[in-house]
Design brief:
This protein is of the alpha+beta class. 20% of the residues lie in helices and 13% in strands. Bound molecules: zinc ion.
Length: 87
């Protein structure tokens, strides 16, 4: 279980810490709720519930599970150029 919690966010240590706390509590399903990410460069939205079927990202794919070599379909930005957006 712990392995699923330690996702490679890389840029936001605080976020990792928060998620780790959720995981350690063991009874919170917030971690599995679909989240939305926005490209900081062009504003393209990645919705985990929708995925990116045109680029072999199935609906429901977690951002953490999107391949590191995936790039923004609009501008070619990489994963580290995206930011999580609360909706
Ligand atoms: Zn973009």
């Amino acid at each position: 279980m712990l392995r699923m919690c330690l996702r490679p966010f890389g840029f936001l240590e605080e976020a990792v810490h928060t998620i780790w706390l959720h995981c350690s509590e063991g009874n919170d399903v917030n971690v599995s709720e679909p989240k939305t990410w926005m490209c900081l460069i062009c504003g393209w939205i990645y919705d985990e519930a929708t995925g990116d079927p045109e680029h072999d990202i199935a609906p429901g794919t977690r951002w953490a599970d999107v391949p590191m070599n995936w790039t923004c379909p609009e501008c070619g930005a990489r994963k580290e150029d995206f930011e999580m957006v609360e909706i």
